[in-house]
Amino acid sequence: MKLKTWGEAIRNTITKIPVEPIEMVKWSISLERLFDQLKVPAELQSVLMRPYLNDRAKSLLARCDPLRMTDYSAIKRFLLQEMRLSPSVYFDKFKFCRSGQELNVCVVWYSFAVIVSILY
Q1: What sign results for the dihedral spanned by CA atoms 87, 25, 3, 55?
Q2: Cβ(49)–Cβ(8) below 8 Å
Q3: How far is residue 72 from each of residues 26, 67, 106, 120, measured CA to CA in Å?
Q4: Cα atoms in the 13 Å half-sphere on the side-chain side of 73
Q5: What is this structure's pTM?
Q6: C-alpha Rg value of the chain to the nearest Å
Q7: HSE toward the beta carbon, residue 14, CA cutoff 13 A
Q8: Would you write out the chain's pLDDT as a tens digit for each of its 120 residues?
Q9: Eight-class DSSP state of 16
Q10: SS3 state at 88
């Protein structure tokens, strides 16, 4: 009963994880804010996020340790690690943007700093 109620509450407010792995951090931030706003119990968060995983995230999660599958933060860490999203990846992207190449895809310094601080 509780799971259905929470599922209906977030159904129209969150999208699937974007295909671009680098966008997963922003997606997880918005999901966590939604969980905080709705006061979703921690034991339901991992179950509620699963329908919004893209195909790549689902296949990666299939390799995850079943004991970690009930903890949202463990799932998030596992997915970030498996998608090779580390602070150095973001720093390389930032340096690439600073060089003037692909400026329309770049993140600004503040966004870069927020994403790196989340990963630490």
Answers
A1: negative
A2: no
A3: 15, 12, 29, 17
A4: 3
A5: 0.69
A6: 16
A7: 28
A8: 677 888 888 888 888 888 877 778 888 888 999 999 989 888 889 889 989 998 988 888 888 888 788 899 889 888 888 877 667 766 776 666 655 555 444 556 666 667 667 665
A9: P
A10: helix
